[in-house]
Amino acid sequence: MIDINYIMGLLDWNNDIAQQSLGIELAKNIECLNAFLQPGVPYGKKVWDNCALIISERSDTILSPYLMDLMRWLQDLNWPGAMCIMERLHKYDFDSSFDFALKESLRTAKMLKDYIWLYNLSMIIKDYDVRYIINLFLGDAYTESNNQIINNYKTSINLPTLAKDTKTNNMYMWQFCADILFSKSDCDLEPHILSLLEWLQDLDFPGCIRIFERLKLFNNKDLLAFAIKNSMESAKALNNSVWIENLTDLNNYLNNNS
Fold first, then answer.
1. Using the 8-state DSSP alphabet, how is residue 93 labeled?
2. What does the alpha-carbon distance between residue 101 and residue 69 come to, in Å, rounded to a whole number?
3. Which of 87, 88, 150, 171 is least crowded, fewest Cβ atoms below 10 Å from its Cβ?
4. Coil, strand or helix: which one is 45?
5. What is the pLDDT of residue 153?
6. What is the pTM assigned to this prediction?
7. pLDDT per residue as tens digits for the range 197-225
8. β strands within the chain, DSSP E
């Protein structure tokens, strides 16, 4: 049996390529992956790149027990191997174990107020159901058991609810929620077009510019024009001059690019 310490010594990025390649090859015979999960002293970050490569070559079935550990690797994308782990998680077939690990990682990141980690996890979320983002931003009251509530919100965020508590860090998370919404199709966004237009109430809202840019790409110009008209009435009723100005700018863009 090959000693794990010998393998770890070969994985050091200071070694020549031949030694590192030998270490990666020998690691294929190691069934337990714990040794390759961001090992500490005496190896440290100098072996993390190769450890990530070793892990990334394993099947979903083998990686399943280690999913939460892999998601913790995404706390800082500057860490060696982090992008390799990110790419591997993108290829993972969604199942109940991935579902659990992702939700628990999101919950932990939110509790720790680790917004860099939350943002990094969002790059995984955007490939899956939007309910994760809805649960994350609207709070623990909106759990998976509240299917009707989740279905009602789907791809939108209840801005007025969040805006009531601007002293919290919720608004910080709007930016990467906007990034996720930006990637959604027109078909996904159409039922929530009025909610997206509400985002334009203040350009200082995180994600507002991103939403504005997404609306400019909207193909159903007639629907968008109708929604802008309705939102304009609301903005005038509220005497919200900033919102009126932003809606006018969007409407002018549509008219000039129709």
1. P
2. 9
3. 87
4. helix
5. 33
6. 0.57
7. 988 988 888 788 999 999 999 999 999 99
8. none
